[in-house]
Amino acid sequence: MRKTTAIISTPPLPTVFEDGQDEGGDAGPDSEWRRVLVSAELHGQRVDRALALAVPEFSRSYLQQLLAAGGVQSNGELVQKPAARVRAGDVLQVELRPTPQSQAFRPEFLPLDVVFEDEHLLVVNKPAGLVVHPAPGNWSGTLLNALLGRDEEAATLPRAGIVHRLDKDTSGLMLVARSRASMDALVRAIAAREVSRQYLALAHKAWIGPAARDIDAAVGRDPRNRLRMAVVDLASQAGKAARTSVTLIQNAEHGCWLRCALHTGRTHQIRVHLASIGHPLVADAVYGGAAAAGLQRQALHAWRLAFMHPVTGESLRFEAAPPQDIMHALAEWGLDYNPG
């Protein structure tokens, strides 16, 4: 949760919570006037920045649109330029209307497959198709919404305690914090590569060569398509170092069943690395994989998660077998599940 100590937001009637839900009152959900008293720390700052700090449930670009549309006043006078400067003691009035983005962080009572739970953390087995964070096109029905609906304390944590991501169509184990102390510790552990994350992948083309291979190749935005990632040369392109260890479990005529261990956590890392060596994931259309063996989503499953408990220090390890669509695909290709 973002803290806004630099300015004082004086709520009118009704008060709007961070999830965009009205506390109650006579203005209804369609409009709300928010009053903001500018403190000394914000003296001389742009008005759009002051508003963004006061009402973090709305994006800065949306607030700029409100300014241009005449929805903001300063000391009773209309303000329309985002670059206008505020002074300590100014009273800003802004008319706010709900947007999908502002209402994204609301609790929803969605079923979750919880593998482990204590007062400090959760381990969740995420199904394919479940989006982790609200984003354009998926402002509701996400894992974050489900966590908020499951535990009201999740609202006190950044991202409801989510410390790492899985792609929408990747299934498997995810780690979620339930307190700020455990969240900070888990984020540090992931950054220090002390959390082991292993995946199972069904890829195109039979594997040739050594059964174990280390792919050490930087990943960044694809310069030809900004909507996807690619292996890049850091000498000439922006990106970050990325390393994945890949082990062959079993070959089939049309593909291979692989175990992948992440040493870094870049966006789409396994998908990009496997595609870069000629083994795109089955049904991963973004990176060259075709639908096959009955699969319509990328054949990637977060199978094993191992880490030290951030509070008790206990060594924990969890495994989750792939869902039925991947198991069916294995049977179609005559492969055994046995991940080793």
Features:
340 residues, alpha+beta, nine-stranded mixed β-sheet, 16 strands, 16% helix, elongated, disordered N terminus
Total DSSP E strands: 16
Strand content: 25-35%
- The structure class reads alpha+beta
User: SSE string, helix = H, strand = E?
Assistant: EEHHEEEEEHEHEEEEEEHEEH
Look at the structure and give the mean pLDDT. 88
Could you name the ranges where pLDDT drops below 50 across 5 or more consecutive residues?
1-29
| Helical percentage | 10-25%
What kind of sheet is the major sheet? Answer: 9 strands, mixed
Brief account:
The protein has 6 helices and 16 strands.
Structural commentary:
The protein has 340 residues and is an alpha+beta fold. It contains six helices and 16 strands. Strands 6, 7, 8, 9, 10, 13, 14, 15 and 16 form a nine-stranded mixed sheet that branches. Strands 1-2-5-3-4 form a five-stranded antiparallel sheet. Helix 1 packs across helix 2.
List the helices and strands and how they pair.
Blueprint lengths: L6 E4 L21 E7 L8 H8 L5 H9 L3 E3 L2 E2 L12 E6 L17 E4 L3 E6 L16 H8 L20 E7 L2 H12 L4 E9 L7 E5 L2 E4 L2 E7 L11 E9 L3 E8 L6 H8 L23 E9 L6 E5 L4 H9 L8
Parallel strand pairs: 8-15
Antiparallel strand pairs: 1-2, 2-5, 3-4, 3-5, 6-7, 7-8, 9-14, 9-15, 10-13, 11-12, 13-14, 15-16
Helix pairs in contact: 1-2
